[in-house]
């Protein structure tokens, strides 16, 4: 199983494609530029089976409808942000000088608890990692040694918590209890910026010192 990082939109939000050898794949956070993402996938003859969201801020959901309609696949989101998809106030697009507000249809599936997920040959764990937003989650591929962390943990930083319903104490708790307990060599795939590892953030991330 391998993954690819595709930065999309003005905020260069990382969309991740995780693929199996049979060319089926999962899409994480199609935040913008739906046509670009669709072209990237079709050129490589990949067959998406689902879209998983780490959270429902506008820069992570902007291309959800375009991509799911093209490939006819379902969307998964945590129940805490189920309503954010269709509400520009909640997903933030109303307040960030967007040309158009982001308003996506409801997700086909709502994630309600931490669990092991098995879909079309993909096996991974769902961790609830709130703080950046109340429904933020991370997806841990244990056998392949990486975690899609959304806007929880970045290389040398953490997610912002000054947005509505953000909570820094809660975010730090999520990072320490859910992410830093992963094996040190685990690769972290963040919502923005370059990849990192658990050990690198434990050693050098200034936001995690003294927690």
UniProtKB/TrEMBL annotation:
For this UniProt record, the keywords arranged alphabetically read as follows:
Hydrolase, Metal-binding, Zinc
Cofactor(s) this protein cannot do without: Zn(2+)
Q: Which GO terms describe its molecular function?
A: hydrolase activity; metal ion binding
The protein's matches in CDD domains, at most eight in alphabetical order, are given as: metallo-hydrolase-like_MBL-fold
Residue intervals of the Metallo-beta-lactamase domain: 12-192
- Which top-level group of life is the source organism from? Bacteria
Q: Which Gene3D superfamilies match?
A: Ribonuclease Z/Hydroxyacylglutathione hydrolase-like (3.60.15.10)
Q: Which Pfam families match?
A: Lactamase_B
**PANTHER family in UniProt:** HYDROXYACYLGLUTATHIONE HYDROLASE GLOC
Q: What protein does this entry describe?
A: MBL fold metallo-hydrolase
Lineage per the UniProt record: Bacteria, Bacillati, Bacillota, Bacilli, Bacillales
């Amino acid at each position: 199983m391998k993954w690819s990082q595709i930065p999309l939109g003005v905020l260069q939000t990382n969309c991740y494609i995780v693929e199996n050898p049979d060319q089926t794949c999962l899409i994480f956070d199609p935040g913008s530029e739906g046509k670009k993402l669709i072209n990237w996938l079709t050129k490589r003859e990949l067959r998406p089976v689902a879209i998983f969201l780490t959270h429902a801020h506008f820069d992570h959901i902007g291309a959800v409808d375009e991509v799911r309609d093209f490939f006819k696949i379902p969307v998964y989101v945590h129940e805490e942000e189920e309503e954010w998809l269709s509400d520009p106030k909640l997903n933030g697009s109303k307040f960030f000088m967007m040309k158009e507000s982001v308003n996506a249809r409801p997700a086909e599936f709502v994630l309600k608890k931490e669990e092991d997920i098995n879909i079309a040959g993909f096996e991974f764990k769902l961790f609830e990692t709130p703080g950046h937003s109340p429904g933020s989650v991370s997806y841990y591929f244990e056998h392949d040694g990486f975690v899609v962390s959304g806007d929880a943990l970045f290389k040398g930083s953490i997610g912002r918590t000054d947005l509505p319903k953000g909570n820094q104490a809660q975010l730090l708790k999520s990072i320490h209890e859910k992410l830093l307990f992963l094996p040190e060599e685990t690769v972290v795939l963040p919502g923005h910026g370059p990849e990192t590892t658990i050990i690198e953030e434990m050693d050098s991330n200034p936001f995690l010192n003294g927690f």
